[in-house]
Design brief:
- One of its GO terms (molecular function) is transcription cis-regulatory region binding.
- Keywords: Cytoplasm, DNA-binding, Phosphoprotein, Transcription, Transcription regulation, Two-component regulatory system.
- This protein is α/β, with parallel strands linked by helices.
- It folds into two domains: 118 residues, Rossmann fold (3-Layer(aba) Sandwich), CATH 3.40.50.2300; 111 residues, Arc Repressor Mutant, subunit A.
- It is 40% helix and 20% strand.
- It has nine helices and 13 strands.
- Strand 6 and strand 7 form a beta hairpin.
- The longest helix is centred in the middle third of the chain and has 16 residues.
- The protein starts with 5 loop residues before the first strand and ends with a strand.
Length: 241
C-alpha cells in the first residue's frame, strides 16, 4: 500500500483481535483493537481511522446497531465479520451501510484482500469500469448534483447527502446509463471490487439503501425503477458537465 492506513478491529474474542493485529501490522497497516462498542467509541473519539473491521456478535450493542450509529455520522469504510454465515445476515449488514463482509472462520489473507479493495474504492478515483472512470466531473438529475471528483451529492435544497463508496459507485453506474435497463449482472460488472462471492441479492439491498437517500418516497421510486424480469432502470434525464 502507498500509505499506512489505520484500521480499527472491533471483536470480543481476544484471539481474533491479537491475530488480526499481528497479521495486519506485518502488512504495513496501523492497527488498534477494541472488545466492544464502548471501547470502540473511546478510540474513535481520540484517533482517526481509515477502516473499521466490525464483528456482528458483540456484547452490549451488536455490530448491526454500531454500524447504523457509525453510518449516521460517517462514511468510514466498514467490513463486517459474521460467524453466522447466513445470507440474511450479510444482507442486513449491507442494508445498514457495511461496505463488505467476511464470514468466520476466515483466512487473514482473504480479509486483507477485502481491506485493500474497500480502501481502494473509498480513497481512489471511483473504481468502476473504464467507461465510468472517464465520466464527466458533474452529473445533474432531477435537481440533484453529483460531483464525481469530490464524491459530493447535493440534493435539490442544496444539502449534502453522505454516500458510502459502494453507494457512490452504484449511483455513477446508473447516471452513466440513464434510461437503460441494467440487470443485476450488469450492475455487478459495473460496480467492481466487492469480491468473487457477491450475490444478486446484494444489488437489491444496495439499491434499497440508495433509494432511501435520493427518492422522495423509497417505496414508490420514480428515479430507480424496478423492471420486473429485467433489472433496474434510472428513469430520469441526466445532464453531464
Amino acid at each position: 500500500m502507498e500509505r499506512s492506513y489505520h484500521i480499527l478491529v472491533v471483536d470480543d474474542h481476544s484471539e481474533i483481535r491479537d491475530l488480526l493485529k499481528r497479521f495486519l501490522l506485518q502488512h504495513g497497516l496501523q492497527v488498534s483493537v477494541a472488545a466492544d462498542g464502548t471501547e470502540m467509541a473511546k478510540l474513535m473519539n481520540h484517533s482517526h481511522f481509515d477502516l473499521i473491521i466490525l464483528d456482528l456478535m458483540l456484547p452490549g450493542k451488536d455490530g448491526i446497531t454500531l454500524c447504523k450509529e457509525i453510518r449516521a455520522e460517517s462514511d468510514i469504510p466498514i467490513i463486517m465479520l459474521t460467524a453466522l454465515g447466513e445470507e440474511i445476515d450479510k444482507i442486513v449488514g449491507l442494508e445498514v451501510g457495511a461496505d463488505d463482509y467476511v464470514a468466520k472462520p476466515f483466512n487473514p489473507r482473504e480479509l486483507l484482500a477485502r481491506i485493500k479493495s474497500v480502501l481502494r474504492r473509498h480513497f481512489a478515483i471511483p473504481n468502476v469500469t473504464q467507461q465510468i472512470t472517464t465520466s464527466p466531473v458533474q452529473y445533474q438529475f432531477s435537481g440533484w448534483i453529483l460531483n464525481s471528483t469530490t464524491r459530493e451529492l447535493t440534493n435539490p435544497d442544496g444539502a449534502l447527502i453522505t454516500l458510502t463508496s459502494t453507494e457512490f459507485e452504484l449511483l455513477v453506474a446508473f447516471l452513466s446509463h440513464p434510461n437503460v435497463v441494467l440487470s443485476r449482472e450488469d450492475l455487478l460488472k459495473l460496480v467492481q471490487g466487492r469480491g468473487a462471492d457477491v450475490y444478486d441479492r446484494a444489488v437489491d439491498t444496495l439499491i434499497s439503501r440508495l433509494r432511501k437517500k435520493i427518492e422522495a418516497d423509497p417505496k414508490m421510486p420514480k428515479l430507480i425503477k424496478t423492471i420486473w424480469g429485467g433489472g433496474y432502470q434510472f428513469s430520469c434525464e441526466v445532464k453531464s458537465l
